[in-house]
Amino acid sequence: MSQRVLVVGAGLGGLRSAEALRAQGFEDEIVVVGDEPHAPYNRPPLSKEALADEVAHERLAFRRKATVDDVVWRLGERVDALDLEARSAVVSGEQLDWDALVVATGVSARRLPVAGPPPSHAAGRHVVRTLDDALALRAALSPSTRLVVIGAGFIGCEVAATARTLGCEVDVVAVDKVPMQRPLGPMLGAELQRRHEGRGVRFHLGVGVERLLGDGHVTGVVLSDGAELKADVVVEALGSQCNVDLLDGQGLDLSDGVLADDALRPLRHGVPVDGVAAVGDVARFPNPRFDDRAFRVEHWSLPTDTGRRAGEVLAAYLRHGPSEAYDAVASKPWEVLPSFWSDQFDIRMQSFGMPGLADPDGVRLLEGDLAGECVVGYHRGGDLMGVVGLGMVRELMAHRASLGRSAR
Q1: CATH number of 4-108+241-330
Q2: Could you give the C-alpha distances from 280 to 113, 244, 308, 347, 377, in angstroms and in order?
Q3: CB-based contacts of 280, cutoff 8 Å, min separation 6
Q4: pLDDT of 189-214, one tens digit each?
Q5: How far is CA 308 from CA 219, 267, 315, 351, in A?
Q6: Which helix (H) or strand (E) holds 345?
Q7: Any residues with CB less than 8 A from the CB of 330 and at least 6 apart, and which?
Q8: Which residues pair with 403 in a beta bridge?
Q9: How far is the C-alpha of 353 from the C-alpha of 303, rounded, in Å?
Q10: DSSP characters for 322-341?
Q11: CB 14 within 8 A of CB 39
Q12: What does the DSSP 8-state code read for residue 363?
């Protein structure tokens, strides 16, 4: 009998999962459902070059392998319900049964829960998670636009840098002591703040937002210390929330994405759910190269890594069912090396590993000059857990083989 795989989410993770299933020999039906009208596209440029140059979807779209030409792409549609026990879904009102499931639902932008104009592009309140978000924000930015960015993580700082390049007046507000404090630590965060300020970005750190001003459209931001910032546009760059509502009430741990084993099978009361895989930003899984605990990582490389692993495991399940052959694939050791990059003004930042696992006093300069090009190492005990480079690409790459637990 013919089998069907349902992929919920038409981003990079969904695409790579479909490609991996085909690469593993699965020839039956694959249905990919995505609520955006666009075919899978590259998201990191949305806060950088796409925002600066109004890049169209055609330039951001991923090149798809010919092996997935026969995949059914249901774009601009939503999965209304999922039932793991019945192995069925409701897609735009239609019941769709499946033999295997990929959960690639990703994350959504958090919104600021304060009084003020409604959270919409039309009201001047923007987020940057989708192509349509980036296009709407770009249309609102012009020289002398007064922009307030709420949040000083990577997306917030990338938007701030891009907006300054466009000639906007930019203020960044964050509760942290330095920009990008959580992923990079205070030393490198302070250096990046210095560079941003040298290009005219104004930071308001260690404060929150009390409320937004304006009726139908934002006109200002009132900070928790009473200061008031004028604003024509506000960008809420407050991190993400996992899209896991479809899995509510089905016995899974959804406290931070979908808790899974290292075969990416969701765990129900500690037992893997065969025939189901969580991939990309929504997956929380152990990576023995760095730790035995499960972590959720939103780095650009993870949708590809997890999509390939999901395709391998699900193809074995569909071919063999519960069996020794399937167990051999699912139990095969698997680890990944997370990576990301960020462009801010003329700063090219790259990272490998998991810097967030470092000890508070484990951040050290490994190469170069902090005020110029450098490589910073993030240590836990005697182990190098992550590296971040500002330039110095060759030196940065040389440290990749040393990353992870020495005792693994």
Answers
A1: 3.50.50.60
A2: 27, 13, 11, 27, 26
A3: 9, 11, 12, 13, 14, 104, 106, 302, 303, 306, 307
A4: 999 999 999 999 999 999 999 999 99
A5: 46, 19, 11, 22
A6: none
A7: 263, 265, 272, 313, 316, 317
A8: 384
A9: 15
A10: SSHHHHHHHTS------EEE
A11: no
A12: E
DSSP per residue, 168-232 = -EEEEEESSSSTTHHHHHHHHHHHHHHHHHHTT-EEEES--EEEEE-SSS--EEEETTS-EEE-S
Bridging pattern class, strands 72-75 and 29-34: parallel
pLDDT tens readout for residues 155-179: 999 999 999 999 999 999 999 999 9
Quick one: 157 exposed, middle or buried, by C-beta within 10 A (0-12, 13-18, 19+)? Answer: buried
DSSP structure string for 64-83: PPGGGTTSEEEET--EEEEE
Number of other residues whose CB lies within 10 A of the CB of residue 15:
27
The structure's pTM equals: 0.95
**Cα gap 256→244, rounded to integer Å:** 9
The mean pLDDT of the chain is 96
Whole-angstrom Cα distance, residue 211 to residue 284?
34
Contact by Cβ (8 Å): 396, 387: yes
Which residues is 374 bridged to in the sheet? 368, 390
Q: 116: which DSSP letter?
A: S
Q: Are 150 and 157 contacting, i.e. CB atoms less than 8 angstroms apart?
A: no
Amino acid at 158: E
Query: At 406, is the pLDDT very low, low, confident or very high (cuts 50, 70, 90)?
Result: confident
| Tokens representing residue 246 in the block | 């479809």
Euclidean distance between the first and final Cα of the chain, in Å? 43
CATH T-level fold of 111-238: FAD/NAD(P)-binding domain (3.50.50)
CATH 3.50.50.60 residue ranges for the chain = 4-108+241-330, 111-238
Q: Residue 376: what residue type?
A: V
Residue 344: beta bridge partners?
Answer: 347
Helix or strand (DSSP H, E) at 348: strand 347-353
